[in-house]
Amino acid sequence: MAAAATMAAAARELVLRAGTSDMEEEEGPLASGPGLQEPLQLGELDITSDEYILDEVDVHIQANLEDELVKEALKTGVDLRHYSKQVELELQQIEQKSIRDYIQESENIASLHNQITACDAVLERMEQMLGAFQSDLSSISSEIRTLQEQSGAMNIRLRNRQAVRGKLGELVDGLVVPSALVMAILEAPVTEPRFLEQLQELDAKAAAVREQEARGTAACADVRGVLDRLRVKAVAKIREFILQKIYSFRKPMTNYQIPQTALLKYRFFYQFLLGNERATAKEIRDEYVETLSKIYLSYYRSYLGRLMKVQYEEVAEKDDLMGVEDTAKKGFFSKPSLRSRNTIFTLGTRGSVISPTELEAPILVPHTAQRGEQRYPFEALFRSQHYALLDNSCREYLFICEFFVVSGPAAHDLFHAVMGRTLSMTLKHLESYLTDCYDAIAVFLCIHIVLRFRNIAAKRDVPALDRYWEQVLALLWPRFEMILEMNVQSVRSTDPQRLGGLDTRPHYITRRYAEFSSALVSINQTIPNERTMQLLGQLQVEVENFVLRVAAEFSSRKEQLVFLINNYDMMLGVLMERAADDSKEVESFQQLLNARTQDLRPEAYFPQELDARYYNSFFRKRGSCSKPGIQHMPFQAGTPPPGSLVLVLVWLFSHVLLPLCDCSRHSSYYKLLYGYIEGLYK
Fold first, then answer.
1. Are the beta carbons of 484 and 535 closer than 8 angstroms?
2. What are phi and psi of 182, to 5 degrees?
3. Are 486 and 438 in contact (CB under 8 A)?
């Protein structure tokens, strides 16, 4: 029906458009026939009405022309007026048919109307019920809000009561004294764990009562008496126990370190005394200081006395200096000197005392050494004495900090109250010994022992000994410098004319210097010190001057040069055995040796007049066995050769022996020497 109505409307519009277009009627196929043109039926069209707007008609016509049915009708050439009437007729038929359908279904429509009316009534009742429910929900919501407010108020009251209960519970728990605490304090021995536990509880309750009393809590008066009586009983038992432990230190042949270590398990006892009975705590501390001070003083005084009995009997004296003549005579009543002064200038194995393994080795036991008739140099005794002092001082300082609950300056003061007399006695003993000590190597080794022990104390976090180390170094350094100055002065004042017969071999004074200097340089390499190098520089200058003074005593230039070369070579060889190759001393003597070797003339070179050590130096293990001075010997043309025997020996050595032995490192020297001699003969 809708499609038919649409087609009818489209047909009407097409008819209207056809009636208004004169040009289309004139060009149509029916225009040529006379009497065929029918009058245009405009019907009820009112062109003056406002319902039709000409501007919009074109739009509607254009839209209808695009309809598929209209397009189809236009294509087939159907008469639009006839087609429109046909459509209207069909519409009327459809309308009549629709009316008949409605009449036939009238009963159903009436029934549907009745059902819709009944539904409206049901929905109305439901609407009324929902309205009632909405009003009920509104009232329930207000009641819920009221309940929420009441619940919040009750929750606040609950939290307040819980807070009051917690505070009140803490107060009551802090003030109430349980029976287990009373029984443990009164009856349990102090060594039992439950006594320590209940003592901590008593200390907490006493602190809580003091705090509540400061706030004005009246309930504290009810328990103050009970706590005071328990505190007095606990203090008495603790005082007796700790004093017994301290008195046990005084027993002869007792290792005090064992009960001292056991006291650390009960360090809370002293903390309890410190917080509840300071007078008793001070009494215990003073008794501990007095007891341990006497024990340490007695132990170290006895140990030092026995330790000095195992020292070497032969020690350096004031006359045992570098420049003193070996054959110097003494008075009739003078004490005999060392059998050989060279030993006090030689390091030997004494330097091992500062090695890491030897430095912290167990201390010497004097009575064991006496039974074995063993003797030690002073630096070994010094190491043993101060290692024992270091070990005991570190242990004592850590015990004081932990047991007496002190740190910083307070710990230092308490430590020096315990160890002060022992340290003073040790310093006086060292000062007394150094007054007659002339062994520079021993003093220098003691200095390096102190430097290493100071580092060990710093690693153990024990700064209490810093002042003592400074005092020891303040005694050792001036003595070492004085001994070194005495040796410098002895070399400076040595008169070569009083040394007796001279020869071109190395002098014993230069031998002493070489051993002494190499010893100090090797020790100083571990912990360099500029003061030592300055003093050694002064000594080196004096020794060089001494060598030149002695060389001046020889009448011929040949002997002077041979003497200088022998002495420089000997000192260089000894220094290179211990000192580094790039040290100042090695470089200095290397330059002096090279210079004197350059000055040597061929006529002064005779194998029998140079020291055998000068030849053997080619075979020393210095990285290179050749002698720079000999490599550059200026054998000039026309000078007398050493002789045919020497030429034959050199030829045999370089062409026969060298290929047979592992001496290739020396072949360059011998081939060079052979080349020089062979050139002279040519």
1. yes
2. -65, -45
3. yes
